[in-house]
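Help needed: design a sequence for this.
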C-alpha cells in the first residue's frame, strides 16, 4: 500500500463546487497513506475555492498539494490537460484523474495495487450517491463511434474486463502511456474528452475495468432509471459539446484508421436521438434542442478543418 500511494498523483479539476471539493479533500486526508501529489486545477472558479485549497494544503505535508489557478475556465478537458501535464512534470508514475464531486474510499490504493502490476490504464468501480453501484457506459462500438451499454456480468473470473473507453471520474493512467499519447486534448472543452483519451490509449495498451470499488459519487442529478442504465440531466453547455465533439471523435478515429463514415453517421444520429430523449423524458423541456443542432453543425466544420492535428506524443 505505501509503495502504491507513493507512485500516485491525484489529478482533480474543480469549478465552483467548493463544498464538494472540501469533502473530497477530507477523503484524501482519511487515506491510510497519502498520495505522492495532489494536483488541483481550479478552472477560474472565482468563489472561495482557493480558500478551500489553501486549507487543505495546510493539513498536508509540504509539497504534496500542487495548486494551479487557471486564468480561464478551460472546461473539464482543459483542466485535465493542465492537471495531467503538471502531475507528469512532478514526476508522478501514475495519475489518478477525477472530478471534484467524488470521494475516495479508504481502501482504494489497496484495491488498485494488484491490478497496477498488470495494466497501465485502469478504472475501478464507483458507488452512486445512494450507495448503489454506479452504472458506467464503458465500451466504444467502433463501427458507430459511441459507447454502448456495458454489463458487470462481463467481468471475467479474475475480476476484470478489458475495455476501450474511459472516464475522468476515476481513470488511473501510467506515465508511460501519457508519454506515448500526450496529454488530454483541451479542445474538447467538455464531453467525449475522457472516452476518446482512453480509446487512444487502448491503441497502445490494455485498458481494464476492475471489479473493485474505489470511489463514491457525491453530486445528485435528476435521472431516469431505464433498467439497463440511468439517464441523467445535462446542461445546455454539455448538450452543445456532446454533438460538436463528434467532430473531434471522428478525427481521432480517422487518424487510427478506424473511421467508418456510414457507421459513424449512424452513431451520430443515435447520439442526437438519445439527447432528444433526455430532453423529453428527464428534463421535460425542448429548450436544449437549439444547442444540440448548433453543436451538430459545428461538428461538421471540425471534421473539415485542414489545420487539425491530434495531440502530440511526449517522446
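Sure. Designed sequence:
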Amino acid at each position: 500500500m505505501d509503495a502504491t500511494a507513493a507512485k500516485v498523483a491525484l489529478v482533480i479539476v474543480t469549478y465552483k463546487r467548493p463544498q464538494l471539493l472540501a469533502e473530497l479533500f477530507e477523503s484524501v486526508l482519511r487515506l491510510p497513506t497519502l498520495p505522492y501529489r495532489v494536483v488541483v486545477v481550479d478552472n477560474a472558479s472565482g468563489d472561495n475555492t482557493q480558500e478551500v485549497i489553501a486549507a487543505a494544503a495546510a493539513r498536508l505535508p509540504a509539497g504534496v498539494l500542487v495548486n494551479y489557478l487557471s486564468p480561464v475556465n478551460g472546461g473539464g478537458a482543459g483542466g485535465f490537460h493542465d492537471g495531467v501535464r503538471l502531475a507528469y512534470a512532478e514526476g508522478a508514475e501514475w495519475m489518478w484523474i477525477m472530478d471534484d464531486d467524488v470521494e475516495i474510499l479508504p481502501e482504494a490504493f489497496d484495491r488498485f495495487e494488484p491490478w497496477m502490476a498488470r495494466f497501465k490504464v485502469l478504472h475501478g468501480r464507483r458507488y452512486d450517491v445512494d450507495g448503489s453501484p454506479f452504472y458506467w457506459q464503458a465500451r466504444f462500438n467502433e463501427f458507430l463511434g459511441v459507447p454502448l451499454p456495458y454489463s458487470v456480468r462481463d467481468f471475467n473470473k479474475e475480476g476484470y474486463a478489458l475495455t476501450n473507453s474511459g472516464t475522468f471520474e476515476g481513470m488511473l493512467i501510467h506515465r508511460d502511456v501519457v508519454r506515448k499519447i500526450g496529454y488530454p486534448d483541451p479542445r474538447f472543452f467538455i464531453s467525449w474528452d475522457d472516452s476518446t483519451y482512453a480509446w487512444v490509449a487502448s491503441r497502445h495498451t490494455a485498458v481494464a475495468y476492475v471489479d473493485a470499488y474505489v470511489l463514491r459519487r457525491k453530486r445528485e442529478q435528476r435521472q431516469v432509471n431505464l433498467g439497463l442504465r440511468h439517464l441523467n440531466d445535462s446542461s445546455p453547455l454539455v448538450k452543445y459539446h456532446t454533438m460538436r465533439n463528434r467532430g473531434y471523435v471522428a478525427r481521432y478515429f480517422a487518424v487510427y484508421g478506424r473511421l467508418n463514415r456510414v457507421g459513424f453517421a449512424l452513431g451520430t444520429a443515435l447520439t442526437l436521438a438519445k439527447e432528444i430523449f433526455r430532453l423529453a423524458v428527464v428534463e421535460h423541456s425542448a429548450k436544449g434542442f437549439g444547442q444540440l443542432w448548433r453543436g451538430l453543425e459545428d461538428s461538421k466544420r471540425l471534421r473539415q478543418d485542414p489545420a487539425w492535428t491530434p495531440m502530440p506524443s511526449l517522446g
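The chain has eleven helices and 13 strands.
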